[in-house]
Amino acid sequence: MFHRRETDFTAENFKEYLDEIIHDWLRTLTALVFTLVPIFFILDYFTMPGYLLPRFGVYRLLSTFIALIQYFIVRSTKAGPQSFLHGYVVSINVGGIIALMTVDLGGFNSSYYAGLNLVIIGVNLLLPWRAIHSTLNCLIIIVLYILLNLTAGNPYDPIILTSNLFFMLGTAIIAVSINHVKHKLVEKEFTLLAQLKKARDALWSEMEIAKRIQTALLPKKETIKGFEIAATMLPAKEVGGDYYDILETPNGERWITLGDVSGHGVDSGLIMMMAQTSICSTIHNCRGHKPSMVLSSVNYIIRENIQRLGSDHYMTIMAIHLSEANMTVAGKHQDIIIYRADQNRTEVIKTKGTWLGITDNISPFLEDISVNLGQGDTVLLFTDGVTEATNSKGQMYGQVRLEQILNQHVNLPIRMILDNIIRDLKEFQQEQMDDITLVIVKKV
Fold it and tell me: How far apart are CA 40 and CA 115, in angstroms?
C-alpha cells in the first residue's frame, strides 16, 4: 500500500513508520493545493459576480503562496513527530479561504460551502493519520465556516444552515470512519512487513550458515604425493551445489572428485554435503575400488536421500583416481582439459557415464577411462559456472576461452594459473549467477 525503506521495518517503530508515510503524502497534498486552488479561479470567473473576482483572486493567490511555501518546507525536511501538523495547516489555509468566500457570497445561505466538503475529504483521505486527527481536522473546518459567517453578521435561513451543517457533519463522519479503517490497514501492513523482514532475516541467516558449511567442508590440503594442486570454489549468492575434494587415503590412494548438484538453494547444498560424505567414506573404507565402483556405490545413497527430500535434483560428477603414470576417470561431468607439456598443446577428454540420483543403478552407464600423464602435464577441472558465465551482451565465457587462458599462463606456478583464470573470468562476467569451481592438477 505504502512505500518505506526496508531497513526501517522493526517491531518498535510504527510511529516513525507512520510519520514518514504522512510526510510523503503531504508532498502530494500540498502540490494538489497549489495546483487546484488557482485553477478553480476559472470557475470563479464564469460563476461569480464580477465585483468579487479581484477579492477572490487575492484569496486564491494568498492560499497558493502559502501552499507553495509549505510544499518546499515538506520537501526539504525529514519526517518527524510533528509532520502531521502540516495537515492542519492545509485545512486552515484552504478551508479558511473557502469560508471567507461563503461570507462574501451571502454567508450561510451560499451553496459555496460545498467546497469545504472537498477539503474535508481531500485532506483526510490523503493523510493516513489517526482518527483523532481526522476528527479535529473536520471540526476545525466546520468551526471556521461557522465563526467567520457569524462574525460577518449576514442574515441567513436557519433551515439552510441546518442543512449545510448536516451535510458537512455527514461528510466528516464518513471521512473519519474511512480514515480509521485506513489507519488500521496501515498498522496491519506494518506488522506484516515487520514479520516478513524478521522471517527473511532468519532465513538469510540460515542461508549464510549453509554457505559457510559448504565452504568449510572444502579440502584444506592442496598437495598429494606426485602432484601439485590448486583449487578454489566461489559460491554464488544462493547456496549452491558445487563440490570438489582432494583425498589421500592412509594406504596411499590419491583421489580428486568434482561435481555439481542441479539447481540452487538448501536442497542442493544438502545433496552436495551428502555426496561428499558418502564419497569420502567409500574411498577410505574400500581399498582398490575403481572410480566407477565408487560412484555406483554413492549413487544408491544419493538416490535414496533425494527421494526422501521429495526433490528432483541430480548431480553431475567425476571421480578421478591418480597413480604414478596415469589417471582413471569415471562419471559424467564437464570435459577435462589437459595441457601436454612435451607437446606444448592442450587436449580435451570427454567424460562418459550418467548423473547421480536419476536412477537406482547406474553401473551399466559408467565407464572407467584411463589417461596417461607425463611429467609437467597440467589437468584443468571445472564446473559449468565457469564456462556458462555471461557478460553484459549475454555471451558465455565458454570452454575455448578457458583453454586459451590456460595455454597463456601454463608456465606459471599453478596457483598463479588459477588466479589468472579467476581474474579473467571476473572481468568477463557481468554478475556471478552460479558457483564457480576450478581445480588444477600438475604432475611433478
Answer: 11
Asked if residue 429 lies in contact with residue 391, where contact means CB atoms within 8 angstroms, the answer is: yes
Task: Give, in order, the Cα–Cα distances in Å from 147 to each of 98, 99, 119, 305.
Answer: 13, 9, 17, 80
Of 318, 314, 311, 315, the residue nearest 333 (C-alpha): 318
The edge-to-edge listing of strands for the beta sheet with 345-349 is 223-224, 227-234, 436-443, 378-382, 336-340, 345-349
Cell of 401: 576461452
Say whether pTM exceeds 0.90: no
Q: Where are the alpha helices (DSSP H) in 77-113?
A: 85-104
DSSP secondary structure string for all residues of 63-80? HHHHHHHHHHHHHHS---
From the number of C-beta atoms within 10 Å of its C-beta (0-12, 13-18, 19+), residue 258 rates as buried
Phi-psi region of 406 (alpha: psi -120 to 50; beta: other; left: phi over 0): alpha
CA–CA gap between residue 361 and residue 65 (Å, rounded): 82
Average pLDDT by stretches of 10, the chain with 444 residues: 48 79 93 94 91 95 96 93 93 95 93 92 89 93 95 92 94 93 87 77 62 67 86 77 88 92 74 86 87 93 82 88 94 95 94 89 93 96 94 94 95 95 94 91 94
